[in-house]
Design goal:
The strands form four sheets. Strands 3-2-1-12-11-10 form a six-stranded antiparallel sheet, sandwiched between helices. A three-stranded antiparallel sheet has the order 4-7-5, covered by helices on one side. It has a two-stranded parallel sheet with strand order 6-13. About 30% of the residues lie in helices and about 15% in strands. It has about 375 residues and is of the alpha+beta class. It is globular and about 55 Å long. It contains 13 helices and 13 strands.
């Protein structure tokens, strides 16, 4: 049962006042939904009339999808089907060409594979062809030896790890089916879609706002995220992209579903009283990769060895720099979407919206929202 929170409602109004169009927030405390709020408006991609955002409105969540993919990989490790030290080419021999035979599952999870890029020929029309995309990923030439460079893999992460999961599944399911069966259904994430069915299209908020500036031609970012595949509204409002369910960035969900995923990390692997992820998995997620600048984006990105991040940016108006950085397991998404867990207090939170921001405003208008959630937790726990 959720609790009515005047500070949280005020925080959502404040976000709208500084530029948000529609925003949604959900939070779980020790696996119990304590907040599920929404404010503002959204429009369907077909240009229909604006309508109020509700807790059931669906939003593209961009790279938060990587947390789902990482969870699928962590499950396969727990089951003994692979290890973090398993070379990708051991289960996917075609991947081992061009000197990629020593790249391990763990290297890919923490974005240190040395192969962050995807093929420059990839277009929106080919995004739904799993076999074609994985063949292109397998044929990439490394930009650096494995475990020598931090380089965030915006797209390739999902197809690489998704194919590892597919090839190690004893039931030989496609990756999307595996995710539905082994992650979304067991965790009760009914409103997280990786490959959006036609009947759910009327619930999806069209994205508005900024598109990121194009990468410098020839830069690593240009190869990792080609200019014709921008992480912005035009591409992610495209039905072809929504249907494809990109394993790195194609999830479409409610804040409630995203917060449900992170509630498993907040409870150190427990789901409804049973173990879903092991303590060893959670501990690995909490270990940071080397704190060196990421060569894709040019700054230090706090990524952990288990595929999650170790910061929640822009969600505290009262903390230095606006970020939560201690005891955090999270994943961000392009344009400002965010889900995070705080295992020390059993809290998970997700904030989704339909107006993408890439550099402005700075910080994102979520600080008051995060602080209001923490105040709600304090009210309930007496902390």
């Amino acid at each position: 049962m959720t609790m009515t929170s005047t500070p949280l409602k005020d925080a959502l109004k404040a976000a709208l006042a500084v530029g948000e169009r529609g925003v949604q927030v959900a939070a779980y405390l020790d696996g119990r939904l304590i907040a599920d709020e929404a404010a503002g408006q959204w429009e369907p991609a077909d240009g229909g009339d604006a309508r109020p955002v509700t807790p059931d409105t669906l939003f593209p969540v961009f790279s938060i999808t990587k947390a789902v993919t990482a969870t699928a990989v962590n499950l396969q490790v727990q089951r003994g089907l692979i290890s973090y030290d398993t070379p990708v080419a051991r289960v996917w021999p075609e991947y081992g060409v061009h000197g990629k035979d020593e790249i391990t599952v763990g290297h890919v999870l923490c974005h240190r594979s040395g192969v962050p890029q995807i093929d420059a020929s990839v277009t929106v029309d080919t995004l739904g062809d799993w076999d074609a995309l994985t063949a292109m990923v397998a044929d990439q030439i490394p930009v650096a030896p494995p475990d020598t460079m931090n380089a965030y893999s915006a797209y390739g992460f999902g197809w690489t790890l998704g194919e590892v999961v597919r090839r190690t599944d004893p039931q030989h399911r496609g990756f999307h089916q595996f995710v539905r069966d082994e992650v979304l259904a067991p965790l009760g994430m009914d409103d997280f879609f990786l490959g959006l069915p036609d009947e759910q299209v009327p619930r999806v908020a069209a994205l508005l706002g900024q598109t990121p500036p194009p990468p410098v031609p020839g830069s690593l970012l240009d190869r990792v995220s080609p200019a014709h595949l921008p992480f912005g509204p035009l591409m992610y409002n495209d039905r072809r992209v929504q249907r494809a369910g990109l394993p790195s960035a194609g999830g479409i969900a409610t804040a409630r579903a995203v917060a449900r995923l992170f509630s498993i990390y907040a409870q150190r692997g427990r789901c409804d009283g049973t173990e879903f992820l092991t303590e060893a998995t959670i501990r690995r997620c909490e270990i940071p990769r080397p704190a060196e600048p990421d060569q894709t984006y040019g700054y230090v990105m706090p990524v952990g060895l288990g595929g999650l991040w170790l910061t929640a940016p822009g969600v505290s108006a009262s903390s230095p720099g606006g970020a939560l950085t201690v005891g955090i397991l999270s994943h961000t998404g392009a344009g400002g979407t965010l889900g995070w867990a705080e295992p020390a207090i059993g809290l998970s939170v997700a904030i989704l919206h339909n107006r993408t921001f890439f550099g402005s405003p700075d910080p994102l208008p979520f600080g008051q929202i995060g602080d209001a959630v923490h105040a709600l937790v304090a009210d309930q726990t007496g902390a």
